[in-house]
Fold these 2 entries.
Entry 1:
Amino acid sequence: MKTFLLPLATAASLSLSLLHGADSAGYFDLGQFTPPKSGGTFVEVNLKGNLLSMAAKIAAKEEPEAAELIRSIESIRINVIGLDDANRAEIKGRVDSVRTGLNAAGWERVVTVQEDGNDVGVYTKTKDADSISGVVVTVLSQDGEAVFVNVVGDIKPERLAELGEHLHLDPLKAVKKAAKEDAAETKK
């Protein structure tokens, strides 16, 4: 996970348009996080409003497709917390709590990966058959980090792979496929 930490924060800060926040169906309250007592990794990125608008304008010159994607995003929140003996159980409990809350709120778990000490869950909140209003990613990595991501917007499923590329979140690439399969099921 550490290999994507810096690119994740950099891509998020460079590549993301208006916060509707808690009023938006795609928003999920991940709660507050505190840095590990051991002084390990702690990253918090909250992008919304004018910062995202500026990023879209900057991206439009060199990457018009990326700018279009950025304009569809209302907000993005990323938290990366280093795990140590003092916070491991608390953070694992937080991951479980977030996942339980997502299930209870009607979010659909579209990606589950549990291998090589990694535990990844990707959830989507669909707006309609053609778009997703939110994506939440939870990760417990073998590298000793937990990652929480909430992307809010009017996101077209076919753009999720691109979003995954920009944020270096490989599980989002699988969301595109799952969303298409779900849309096909809905039309039946």
Entry 2:
Amino acid sequence: MTLAAFLAVCLLHLMAAISPGPAVLMSARTGVTEGLRTGVFLATGIGIGGVIWAMAALFGLNLVFQAAPALLWALKIAGGLYLIHMAWGMWRGADQPLDMTDSRRPPRSPLSAFRLGLVTQLANPKPAILFASIFVGTVPQGTPTWVYAALLTVVFLNETIWNTLVARIFSFERSKATYISLKTLIDRSFGGLLALLGVKIALT
């Protein structure tokens, strides 16, 4: 694998990580409601989820999908339904006031945030298809193990750093103040977008 091909894979994945999707949406909401610390653990879960999909693509899951299209269809349906379930929870609780100064409100645990990020990423099987399409023309057979490790490291860093940055931007006090004043509108907008993404994943 040439250096140019390696850099091309890194750039293509970075663009995919930056594009709006369930992971970015969840990072934004977590940053504004629970702050940067929780957002970092969420982003780490998202990063690990990205590595899992990248490993699946590198080691032949796309071939399985081609041989058994029903498996991909089932994964899309399951993932889409999970995202719709999360969206419904956002929509249903949108009109409940949120006091950001209430210290009695327990923060989400690091493990819970990590798990949410991981499941959110794994609920969307499209990265496996994206990775397969990127890797098929750039990662030749016989590629050394260290190159695979480097690619997976880049995937983890792209996903984790970008989603941490999103959480950071939305964790600023001005962002929180805006969220508190427009909570119902924002939560229903987030919920609606997440539901649309869930439907799109399930049907495409």
